């Protein structure tokens, strides 16, 4: 698959959070670079570009992170009521070692100095910008036939230490990135009965939130 083959709507429809479909091959460097270029073209508040991408391929680091996430999964599972725990048990929540590549996306609130045009009244706009870079990355990867799985079952301090983020740089995501056999047609969480998508008509309001 190649980026030129898909319209943006097709990439949006095809995109999935991938956990179980990684082939075990490593995404090649040229493809990875195109995907990162797409991420780096995201809009950002005040053009601050507050993101960085740490590409992790050392198997020992992937293993350490996977072990940490496994512990967090157990904590989450044990806090669920029994019926939800039974629904959760078969759900895979990461493909850290299988994907072979992790990308830690981080956020630097200090990038661009204190006067960020557009961030004065809404400080979260910096994080919003970083997340837009992630969505660009996700869609570009999809167009390349490369899967992305967002992992957030981690203690931010642990991930900060694992990849050596400097003081003041926050981790926003661990993305598992790798070639896939296929993209599922529906989200795992729907297929496993955890939560379904809301109809668009429930999400769209007219004039006020209550409209
Ligand atoms: C901020 C964020 C954090 C997420 N964290 C996890 C995670 O830790 N583990 C996981 O399996 N999926 C995670 N996901 C993926 C969601 O479960 C997934 O996007 C959702 O179920 C919809 O499925 P789809 O992306 O295939 O459409 C995360 C997604 C987002 C946007």
What does this entry look like structurally?
- The protein has about 210 residues and is an alpha+beta fold.
- It has a single domain (about 5-180), classed as NADH Oxidase.
- Helices cover about 40% and strands about 15% of the residues.
- It has nine helices and four strands.
- The chain has helices at about 10-15, 30-40, 60-80, 80-90, 95-100, 125-145, 155-165, 190, 200-205; strands at about 50-55, 100-110, 145-150, 170-180.
- It has a four-stranded antiparallel beta sheet, sandwiched between helices.
- Helix 1 (about 10-15) crosses helix 6 and helix 3 runs antiparallel to helix 7.
- The longest helix has 20 residues, at about 60-80.
- About 30% of the residues are buried.
- The structure holds flavin mononucleotide.
- Flavin mononucleotide binds near residues 150, 152, 187 and 189.
- Flavin mononucleotide (FMN) binds near residues 151 and 152.
User: Regarding CATH, which class?
Assistant: Alpha Beta
CATH 2nd-level architecture: 3-Layer(aba) Sandwich
Q: Give the tally of β-strands.
A: 4
User: How much of the polypeptide forms β-strand, as a percent range?
Assistant: 5-15%
Q: What is the ordering of alpha helices and beta strands?
A: HHEHHHEHEHEHH
| Termini Cα gap | 43 Å
Q: What class would the helix/strand composition place it in?
A: alpha+beta
Q: Structurally, how many domains make up the residues?
A: 1
Major β-sheet annotation? 4 strands, antiparallel
Shape: globular
Summarize the structure.
With 211 residues, this protein is α+β, with helices and mostly antiparallel strands.
């Amino acid at each position: 698959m190649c980026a030129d083959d898909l319209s943006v709507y097709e990439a949006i429809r095809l995109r999935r959070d991938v956990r179980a479909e990684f082939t075990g091959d490593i995404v090649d460097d040229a493809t990875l670079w195109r995907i990162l270029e797409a991420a780096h073209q995201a809009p950002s508040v005040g053009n601050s570009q507050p993101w960085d991408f740490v590409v992790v391929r050392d198997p020992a680091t992937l293993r350490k992170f996977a072990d940490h996430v496994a512990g967090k999964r157990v904590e989450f599972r044990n806090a669920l009521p029994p019926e939800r725990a039974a629904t959760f048990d078969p759900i895979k929540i990461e493909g850290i070692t299988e994907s072979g590549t992790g990308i830690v996306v981080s956020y630097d609130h200090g990038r661009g100095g204190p006067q960020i045009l557009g961030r004065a009244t809404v400080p979260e706009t910096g994080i919003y910008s970083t997340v837009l870079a992630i969505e660009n990355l996700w869609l570009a990867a999809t167009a390349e036939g490369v899967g992305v799985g967002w992992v957030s079952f981690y203690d931010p301090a642990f991930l900060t230490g694992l990849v050596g983020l400097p003081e003041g740089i926050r981790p926003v995501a661990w993305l598992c990135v790798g070639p896939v056999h296929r993209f599922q047609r529906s989200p795992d969480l729907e297929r496993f009965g955890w939560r379904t998508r809301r109809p668009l008509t429930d999400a769209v309001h007219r004039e006020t939130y209550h409209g």
